[in-house]
Every structure is written in C-alpha cells, then in structure tokens.
Amino acid sequence: MNETVLKIRVFGDPVLRRKARAVRGITVSHNQILSQMAQLMYDSGGVGLAAPQVGINEAMIVVDAGSGLYKLINPCIVQRQGFQVLEEGCLSVPGICLKIKRAKKIAVRARDENGKTLKIEAQDLLACVFQHEIDHLKGKLIVDYASIVEKFKIKRKLTALQRKINANLSESKTKSCQLQL
Fold first, then answer.
1. Measured in whole angstroms, how far is the alpha carbon of residue 9 from the centre of its chain?
2. Is the pLDDT assigned to residue 143 strictly greater than 90?
3. Is 133 one of the catalytic residues?
4. CA distance 104 to 85
5. How many Å apart are CA 148 and CA 101, to the nearest integer?
6. Measured between alpha carbons, how far is 121 from 56 in angstroms, rounded to an integer?
7. 14-171 in CATH: which number?
8. N or C terminus: which one in the chain shows less Cβ crowding within 10 Å?
C-alpha cells in the first residue's frame, strides 16, 4: 500500500453518496487501511468511521463505542429489534446533530480483518453506531433522516459550512469542529 494519508471527506464530496463495493479478497492493504481508519477515528474524536468517509469505495468500517475496536469488512445487518431515538453527529457532516430513530438491538454479520466470519449482537449506542456506519456504505447520511423543517435548517448550516470550507481550505488542517458524535 502506498503511504496515502487518509482524511475525512465532508458533506458535498460525491464519494459519500456512492454505494461501497463489497471486498472480495482481504489483503494486507485492507488491514493497513482499517488500522489507519481506526487511528483517524480516534484522532478525530469519533466512535465510528466508514471507508467512504475517507474516499475509499469499499465496504469496511471501524467502530469503538467504548467496548473495544471492531474492524469489519462487508458488514450487514441481519436482525433488528425495537427502536430508539438518539442524537447523532457525523465526522463527515461536522456541526450537525439530529435525533434519529433506529433499531435498539441488531445483529451484524461481517468478516474481521483476518477473514473470519463474525456475528455481533449490539444494542443501544453500539447498535446505533453500527447502523450509522453501515448507512455510509449505502451512500446514506444523517441528513437524509431529517424532517422537512430540519432539512431547511440543515441546508442553511451546510451552505455556511461549505462556504467556510472553501474559504478556509488552506487552514482546514488547523481548525476542527468541536462536536464529533
């Protein structure tokens, strides 16, 4: 793998709207990317990160909601139960928080970085984070859950964010949003 530095892509980048491709064969490169994604997630103060958020169009996520690091390849939700509403933010949509209704308990099937098939049962915050990151693999963002009124408010914030990003492109590495899910 080349020594490309991963960076979080922000709302407006078309890569965030593409459906991620399934990983066919797990390579050393995939393991390196997952490790880099985990480090970037921790450095950014997040609890999850999907490969599309760093410009990689493959179905990989990293999650750590306080119970340990998961590095998952080709994750899919195979079971859902109940519902919960939690306020979510997103590293790719900084400064926006929305209350989102998701399943309270889920089961996720995936492969780990060694190719071993896993079935993970999660509930509460961990279930929410898995659902959020798997949404990224489908090209779906938290703003897609917003009501019409929220979309109007978000549009104004996103427009302002985009202007700020464009104006401060050279300073983007030194400034970051305080709110990171």
1. 10
2. yes
3. yes
4. 8
5. 16
6. 26
7. 3.90.45.10
8. N
Q: Which residue has the tokens 């390579």?
A: 27
* Structure tokens, 23: 């990983």
Section 2-16 average pLDDT: 83
* Tokens encoding 173: 């590495």
Sign for the pseudo-dihedral over CA of 25, 29, 35, 41: negative
- Which sequence spans correspond to the domains of the chain? 14-171
Q: What is the pLDDT of residues 27-71, one digit of tens each?
A: 999 999 999 999 999 999 999 999 999 999 999 999 999 999 999
Beta strands in 8-167 (DSSP E): 48-50, 60-63, 70-81, 84-88, 98-102, 105-111, 117-123
Residues 6+ positions from 136 with CB-CB distance below 8 Å: 16, 20, 50, 52, 53, 61, 92
Residue appearing with tokens 């590095």: 71
Given the residues 3, 88, 133, 150, select the one marked as catalytic.
133
